[in-house]
Design goal:
mainly beta; 13-stranded mixed beta sheet; 54 strands; about 950 residues; globular; eight-stranded parallel beta barrel; disordered N terminus
């Protein structure tokens, strides 16, 4: 028989909350016939020992006479401040009582504060079986009147309690938590509100059981686990859970979040953002979390972003991640560059090894979110500066330059800012907000991103149509800069934007800055975000941008640099290869070569996070393994780090290039064949750079080098080395080669032997730049033309279409037979017209997915960039046989979604699609080359059973433009 085992009195009185190793559990089993210290809570409540029911043994504690939900059995809780307790109990309703939620709750009164009520554990209980209640409890503030009591959601429920155990924990912050629900209980999970949690055998990820969640009252209502005391401040934890939609739920999104409270004020942080959970599938939600605050409440919970659908969860795990020490035997980045080396950060990044890494390598910081409007002024006139103060003070204490990000932005701005706002009201709110922030951090924040992302190069005037602009025009920008300058005349004031390395956006921002400076607006500098990927855009684009804005006499800073290992928005790697990290390292080298050359025009370079584990790209645009920064997930140096600190330690890079079949005249002229693809860049060294291409032919391999070198010297030469055989061409020419002078240097064409291993080295005296890699022969790039005519878009192939050549889809990417199309193209003004006559006797739109319906997809790249990914004006335009139009491309296709109009008509044996696609980002003219392809999707019932393209054989036409054909605009 179990007996009452009391905690030693010394533990209750100890000033230091560390329990001895022999500290015992406190168990209440009621087998001695007494209530063992438990008494009634509520005027008419009765608490008594009974032998009518028992979880184990012969006795339990019966509670009756309740008339309010908070009535029940209560005990003076023997909890010690700073010690975490595991609390378990078993509950069962008296026969005939309706099911209700029974909870164990702590009441305490902090010294100088108000009484609080903190739920420890809860579960749905019936009269049919004993249900386990379990949770952890910790309090850290001096408190009096500690009581633990049982309460019920039903005000009159009568219930039994048994086997109540308080277990003091040694160091619970290092102990893993796992729940698999195989014991038939909720295993420490409890509802946040009205949700019902029940063990279920209807579905399981592992084993035979999961936890079914039903009856949710809101998106945030669902299962929660109290983890107070199980996480240490500054410690990092891996959390994982498997989820599945409930029955009769076709679609839903679920995420994993943390609720924390300090002084009763709640905050919510996402560990895993809401993620698609396809019907019938288990999906893992996995992420990491670092506790950065002192808290008096901490809970992990699951939520949806919309709806209250039922779901299952299974196999939850939370594990402490022991940090690796940072490397102290490598150079500090800030000592290796001629400008401020900055990092974005959040509060957790200031703690532990993350804080050590920041202090060692960076002399500049940018708070990532803590100074944005929603964080600093969530309600008008109510400012919150605690997190901002913490980060700014961290920078000041470590002698770092602090950048303020950001005062005015179209995103993360509370709704109240625009509610009922005319121009005068909005500008007053701007002035109040800007003045409050800049004044608070005067002499601490050296530079501010005053306005952020105000450019939309797809608009005629290049300006984003945000609510700011719609209400106040440019005056919101003028006001923000004026007030910021008045509040701190010594702070440098920046306008900040992304994609400034692309020519259209570059010129739109340039025009705005030039205009505002001419008006006397106090703009000191331009911030270039530079969220790039491992391949695009070329480093030369970045250099062109810096040189362009230098003509305005403004300071420039790189403000948000990272380099994604992905070139599209949907791919995901299970692991990252050393070769990919090496490629990323060389990409960083090319960028920092630019930054060093432009150091006189560039005062700071900030990476958007110190290490891969804290990067926003781990969850955007989708959750996936990414590695975009200089230090890895364990804060260890990567090739990207060495690209900045010491490029000589980079691993060798072997590039890859395709050589399509083709024949050119070796005469130094740039044939049309070369214009079908962009040149592969050779990085600039000194004042020399180049581009390279190859074509495979029966007689050998044609090669092209476009050299940028304006100074003519005897040492100027290009050497093509193929499988060990060198072929050198000077400016004077060479065997089977031709050279022609160009406006920026010279062009080399040559015919060399076929081969795979290729090195191209361009020399200018003692300076050299090179490309080394493997060249693969591939089929020719298909070329067709569009006639200069204007059709009527009505689904009828009128005679005007006969002026255009006919092409056919014959490259199968799914299946080997099925629907195909004959396609023609016309152009007029800024519009491309496409006519597709599809042979397909059986038509279907049964699938909810448009790409699995009978349809034609038209792919257009106005710049013919042939990139592994989509740029903002590349489009995927899909037209079903009924005329339904869907658009893809970049992440949200915002730049192209309104470009297309189309008509479809069924005809005997198939259907006709006629489409008009506006191309506003370029000027259409005879000779213009467009990246172009067409795909026909063949549906049988609700499935796609075939797909065929004109040129692209990769099956990745919807992800990247690199293997599309080419459409030439003719007369």
């Amino acid at each position: 028989m179990r007996t009452l085992r009391a905690l030693v009195a010394a533990a209750l009185l100890c000033l230091v909350p560390v329990l001895p190793a022999h500290a015992a559990d406190l168990t209440y089993d009621f087998e001695d016939g007494t209530t063992q210290g438990w008494g009634p809570r509520g005027g008419d409540v009765s608490v008594a020992v009974t032998t009518d029911a028992a979880h184990a043994g012969t006795s339990s504690l019966l509670t009756t006479g309740r008339t309010a939900t908070w009535h029940g059995a209560s005990i003076a809780a023997p909890f010690v401040k700073g010690v975490t307790y595991r609390v378990t109990a078993y509950a069962r309703l008296v026969t005939g009582q309706p099911a209700s939620t029974i909870a164990l709750t702590v009441q305490r009164t902090p010294t100088g504060g108000e009484t609080t009520y903190e739920r420890v554990a809860a579960a749905t209980v019936t009269d049919g079986e004993w249900v386990r209640l379990a949770g952890t409890y910790l309090f850290t503030a001096d408190s009096t009147d500690l009581q633990l009591y049982a309460e019920s959601s039903d005000a009159t429920s009568q219930y039994y309690l048994d086997d109540i155990v308080f277990s003091p924990q040694g160091d619970p912050t290092r102990e893993p938590i796992s729940t698999d629900f195989e014991d038939g209980t909720a295993q420490d999970w409890s509802p946040r509100a009205a949700a019902t949690l029940e063990s279920s055998t209807a579905a399981a990820h592992g084993g035979a059981r999961s936890l079914a969640v039903t009856g949710r009252s809101a998106t945030w209502d669902g299962p929660a686990m109290n983890v107070l005391g199980r996480m240490g401040k500054g410690d990092k934890y891996a959390l994982s859970v498997w989820v599945r939609l409930g029955p009769d739920t076709a679609a839903g999104r679920l995420g994993l979040s943390i609720e924390r409270r300090t002084g009763g004020t709640p905050s919510y942080e996402r560990i895993v953002p809401p993620t698609d959970v396809p019907a019938g599938q288990w999906v893992q939600l996995a992420g990491t979390y670092t506790l950065a605050y002192d808290v008096d409440f901490l809970s992990v919970y699951l939520e949806s972003d919309s709806g209250t659908f039922p779901f299952y969860l299974d196999d939850f795990a939370m594990t402490y991640i022991a940090p690796k020490p940072i490397q102290t035997d490598i150079p500090a980045l800030k000592d290796k560059v001629p400008f401020t080396m900055g990092s974005a950060l959040t509060r957790p990044d200031t703690l532990g090894v993350h804080g050590e890494l920041l202090a060692r390598h960076f002399n500049g910081i940018t708070p990532g979110n803590e100074l944005k409007w929603d964080a600093t002024e969530p309600r008008e006139g109510e400012f919150a500066f605690a997190d901002g103060d913490h980060l700014v003070d961290f920078g000041v204490q470590h002698g770092m330059t602090v950048r303020g990000h950001t005062l005015v932005w179209h995103s993360q701005t509370p709704a109240w800012v625009f509610e009922g706002a005319d121009k005068e009201t909005l500008l007053r709110r701007v002035e109040n907000h800007v003045r409050a922030l800049v004044t608070r951090y005067k002499d601490k924040i050296a530079a501010w991103d005053v306005v952020n992302e105000v450019i939309d190069e797809n608009q005629p005037d290049g300006l984003r149509r945000s609510k700011w602009y719609e209400i106040a025009g440019l005056d919101y920008i003028r006001t923000a800069f004026r007030v910021a300058h008045e509040a701190d005349p010594d702070a440098k004031l920046f306008i900040n934007d992304y994609n400034t390395e692309f020519p259209r956006k570059r010129e739109a921002l340039y025009a705005l800055v030039k205009q505002l400076k001419a008006e006397g607006v106090p703009i000191d500098g331009v911030g270039h975000q530079l969220h790039l990927n491992i391949e695009q855009p070329p480093a030369s684009y970045v250099e062109d941008t810096i040189e362009r804005f230098a003509t305005l006499g403004v300071d420039q800073q790189v403000t948000e640099l990272d380099v994604s290992i992905y070139t599209d928005f949907v791919s995901s790697y299970p692991s990252i290869s050393p070769e990919l990290l090496a490629e990323q390292g060389h990409r960083y080298k090319a960028l920092f070569d630019v930054f060093r050359r432009q150091a006189s025009k560039l005062s700071s370079v900030t990476v958007w996070g110190e290490s891969d584990d804290v990067s926003w790209l781990n969850t955007w645009p989708i959750p996936r393994l990414n590695a975009p920064l200089l230090f890895d997930h364990d804060l260890q140096a990567k090739p990207a780090y060495w690209a900045v600190a010491d490029p000589s330690k980079l691993p060798p890079l072997v590039r890859k290039l395709e050589a399509p079949a083709g024949t050119v005249s070796v005469d130094g002229k740039r044939d049309l064949q070369w214009d079908l693809l962009p040149d592969a860049p050779l990085d600039r060294v000194g004042n020399v750079s180049a581009g390279f291409q190859a074509r495979s032919a029966a007689t050998g391999m044609y090669v092209l080098a476009e050299v940028n070198d304006t100074t003519v010297g005897a040492g100027d030469k290009v050497t093509f080395t193929v499988d060990g055989t060198a072929h050198t061409v000077t400016r004077a020419g060479g065997p089977k080669a031709a050279v022609k002078r160009t406006a920026t240097g010279y062009r080399v064409e040559a015919l060399v032997k076929k081969g795979v291993d290729v090195d191209v080295t361009v020399r200018d005296g003692s300076t050299a730049t090179s490309w080394t890699g493997k060249v693969t022969a591939v089929p020719a790039v298909k070329l067709t033309s569009a006639a200069h005519r204007t059709p009527v878009v009505d689904g009828v192939a009128e005679p005007v279409w006969r002026a255009a050549p006919d092409i056919r889809t014959a490259t199968w990417i799914q299946g080997t037979s099925g629907a195909t199309a004959r396609v023609r193209s016309l152009w007029s003004g800024s519009t491309l017209y496409v006519l597709a006559h599809v042979t397909d006797p059986t038509l279907s739109e049964e699938s909810p997915n448009p790409w699995e319906q009978d349809s034609v997809e038209i792919f257009v790249d106005p710049g013919n960039g042939k990139t592994k990914g989509y740029t903002d004006d590349d489009g995927q335009y899909r037209v079903s046989f009924t005329g339904r139009v869907t658009v893809g491309g970049t992440f949200d296709a915002a730049g192209v979604k309104d470009n297309v109009t189309a008509v479809a008509k069924t005809v005997p044996g198939g259907y006709v699609v006629e489409a008009a696609i506006k191309l506003p980002t370029i000027t259409l003219a005879e000779g213009t080359l467009l990246g172009f392809d067409v795909q026909v999707n063949d549906a049988t019932g609700a499935a796609r059973t075939g797909a065929v393209t004109w040129n692209d054989a990769t099956g990745r036409t919807y992800l990247d433009t690199s293997h599309w054909g080419v459409l030439r605009l003719a007369d």
